[in-house]
């Protein structure tokens, strides 16, 4: 099997891989703040309008300068310590809307997976609250797809990372 990737499956523009970063999002959305959270949950893509709001919510000038420098270098917010600044800047009404739509959005994820014949989904950063919510969701909404996840373990006597597979019931 070759390592070549079918170009029609990748986001290319003029034979170059399309990159999402603060410059591109600022060009495409100059008049409104944009905060896109990557599915990996390790990166948040923002535009300059969003960065301005985030910086207005950071009191310490050194923290503001550090964040500006990191964004210039990275093009996006990386990992929770940076992304949390963005989460903190999101208006409460928008956070409430995400919570209200959570079941609908999870339904959509599982429905799409079922339609595509997916039998296993994996979450790489499971938190206890997320695990409990997912288990409750699956108990009330059986799915064809099983869910596996990696959890971080803070107990030094155990491995740092361990995997769990949650066997969901099949829809009949």
Break the fold down into its secondary structure elements and pairings.
Layout: E1 12-13, E2 16-17, H1 22-28, E3 35-37, E4 43-46, H2 48-56, H3 61-74, E5 77-78, H4 79-89, H5 92-100, H6 102-115, E6 120-126, H7 128-140, E7 146-152, E8 161-166
Parallel strand pairs: 6-7
Antiparallel strand pairs: 1-2, 3-4, 4-5, 7-8
3D structure, described in words:
The protein has about 170 residues and is an alpha+beta fold. About 45% of the residues lie in helices and about 20% in strands. It is built from seven helices and eight strands. A three-stranded antiparallel beta sheet has the order 3-4-5, with helices on both faces. Strands 6-7-8 form a three-stranded mixed beta sheet, with helices on one face. Strand 1 (about 10-15) and strand 2 (about 15) form a beta hairpin. Mean pLDDT is about 80; it is low at about 1-10, about 160-165 and about 165-170.
The order of strands across the largest sheet is 3-4-5
Name the average pLDDT: 79
Helices and strands, in order, run as EEHEEHHEHHHEHEE
What's the shape?
globular
Total helical segments = 7
Describe, in short, the structure shown.
The protein is an alpha+beta fold and 172 residues long. 45% of the residues lie in helices and 19% in strands. It has seven helices and eight strands; from the N terminus they run ββαββααβαααβαββ.
């Amino acid at each position: 099997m070759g390592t070549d990737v079918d170009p029609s499956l990748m986001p290319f523009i003029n034979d170059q891989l399309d990159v999402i970063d603060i410059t591109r999002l600022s060009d495409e959305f100059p008049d409104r703040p944009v905060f896109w959270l990557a599915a990996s949950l390790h990166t948040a893509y923002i535009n300059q309008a969003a960065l301005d709001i985030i910086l207005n919510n950071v009191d310490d000038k050194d923290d503001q300068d550090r964040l500006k420098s990191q964004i210039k270098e990275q093009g996006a917010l990386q990992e929770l310590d940076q992304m949390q600044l963005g989460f903190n800047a999101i208006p409460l009404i928008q956070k409430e809307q995400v919570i209200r739509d959570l079941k609908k959005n999870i339904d959509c994820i599982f429905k799409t997976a079922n339609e595509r014949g997916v039998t296993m989904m994996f979450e790489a950063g499971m938190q206890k609250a997320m695990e409990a919510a997912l288990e409750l969701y699956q108990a009330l909404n059986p799915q064809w797809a099983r869910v596996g996840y990696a959890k971080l373990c803070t107990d030094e006597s155990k491995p740092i990372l361990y995997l769990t597979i949650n066997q969901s019931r099949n829809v009949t």
